[in-house]
Amino acid sequence: MENIVQNLQTVPLNHYILFSTLIFSIGVIGVLIRRNMIIMMMSIELMLNAVNLLLAAFSVHHGDSSGQVFVFFIMALAAAEVAVGLAIIIMVYRNTKSVDIDALNKLRW
Amino acid sequence: MSLFYVVALLSTFFALMTIFTKNPVHSVLYLVITFFTFTVHYILLNAQFLAVVNFIVYMGAIMVLFLFVLMLLNMNEDVEPMKSTLVKVMAVIAGCCLFVTVCGALHLFDTQTPLIEKDPSIGLVKNLGQVLFKEFLLPFELSSLLLLTAMVGAVLLAKKEPKRI
């Protein structure tokens, strides 16, 4: 335990922000370059995780546990979001026989 | 070299593999490894409750759901038509622009201070449970309602429609 805390104190808060931004950007790129709906949802999960890690880091930095409670609520929300999203994907697949996002281009205005 | 940088490198690598692998099943497996590295990050932050919840909810529940859907839709081969190269390059440039913008904004602040843990016991299950059930009792109960709604919605959406006559 003491070792972990010692280890932590050498990392600037800056690097946590940079790392979370990097993972978030990777998630954004994943949403933009893929056409498979399931992989797009996985990229969204990646973005949510990056934000969670940053919230936890700030919570530890400020010594306030509200941030970690908030991360817990985001995780519950992510579980609900994934369940509904995958149900929608299954319904779309049943109607169009593909998980290509372009199968839904009639939703465009 | 601090353990943080090693784990950060690993999670970045596996996140990249997640979005660039063609086979969806491999993509899900890389995402599982990415979430595992996030769990290690939480342990490094001494947020043990979040580490356990991340391990159970993300790696256990959500990833099994993804794998089940991939299995149901029978997509374990590379059938995905990829976007054109121009769109891909533009997407990567857009993502890099986002990264550079946030990094540029970061330089306006003085955040070089090392991460000092003021209260090392903040992320333990005991303390977090106290906060969760004293200050955040109503949102906690509401989140159970949210999960119930999501469950009913998912069952309703994924159910087969009855044949029309």
Automatic annotation (TrEMBL), chain A:
Gene3D superfamilies documented for this protein: 1.10.287.3510
What keywords would UniProt list here? Answer: Cell membrane, Membrane, NAD, Oxidoreductase, Quinone, Translocase, Transmembrane, Transmembrane helix, Transport
User: Which terms does the UniProt entry file under GO BP?
Assistant: ATP synthesis coupled electron transport
Membrane association type = Multi-pass membrane protein
Any one cellular-component term (Gene Ontology): plasma membrane
Q: Which reaction does it catalyse?
A: a quinone + NADH + 5 H(+)(in) = a quinol + NAD(+) + 4 H(+)(out)
Tell me its EC number(s), please: 7.1.1.-
Q: What class of enzyme is it?
A: translocase
Q: Does the keyword Repeat apply?
A: no
Which is an annotated GO molecular function term of this record? Answer: quinone binding
Which domain of life, per UniProt?
Bacteria
Q: List the transmembrane segments.
A: 16-34, 46-63, 69-93
Task: Indicate the quaternary assembly.
Answer: NDH-1 is composed of 14 different subunits. Subunits NuoA, H, J, K, L, M, N constitute the membrane sector of the complex.
Q: Which PANTHER family match?
A: NADH-UBIQUINONE OXIDOREDUCTASE CHAIN 4L, NADH-UBIQUINONE OXIDOREDUCTASE SUBUNIT ND4L
Q: What task does this protein carry out?
A: NDH-1 shuttles electrons from NADH, via FMN and iron-sulfur (Fe-S) centers, to quinones in the respiratory chain. The immediate electron acceptor for the enzyme in this species is believed to be a menaquinone. Couples the redox reaction to proton translocation (for every two electrons transferred, four hydrogen ions are translocated across the cytoplasmic membrane), and thus conserves the redox energy in a proton gradient.
Family in the record? Belongs to the complex I subunit 4L family.
What is this protein's record name?
A: NADH-quinone oxidoreductase subunit K
Q: Which organism is it from?
A: Rhinopithecimicrobium faecis
From TrEMBL, chain B:
Protein name, entry field: NADH-quinone oxidoreductase subunit J
Transmembrane regions listed in the UniProt entry: 6-21, 28-45, 51-73, 85-109, 136-158
Q: What is its main location?
A: membrane
Q: How does it sit in the membrane?
A: Multi-pass membrane protein
Q: Which GO terms describe its molecular function?
A: NADH dehydrogenase (ubiquinone) activity; oxidoreductase activity; quinone binding
| One Pfam family here | Oxidored_q3
This entry's Enzyme Commission designation comes to: 7.1.1.-
Q: Name one GO cellular component term.
A: plasma membrane
What keywords appear on the UniProt entry? Cell membrane, Membrane, NAD, Oxidoreductase, Quinone, Transmembrane, Transmembrane helix
Keyword Magnesium attached: no
The entry assigns this protein to a family as follows: Belongs to the complex I subunit 6 family.
Summarizing the function annotation, the protein's role is:
NDH-1 shuttles electrons from NADH, via FMN and iron-sulfur (Fe-S) centers, to quinones in the respiratory chain. Couples the redox reaction to proton translocation (for every two electrons transferred, four hydrogen ions are translocated across the cytoplasmic membrane), and thus conserves the redox energy in a proton gradient.
Superkingdom, natural source: Bacteria
Catalytic activity from the UniProt record: a quinone + NADH + 5 H(+)(in) = a quinol + NAD(+) + 4 H(+)(out)
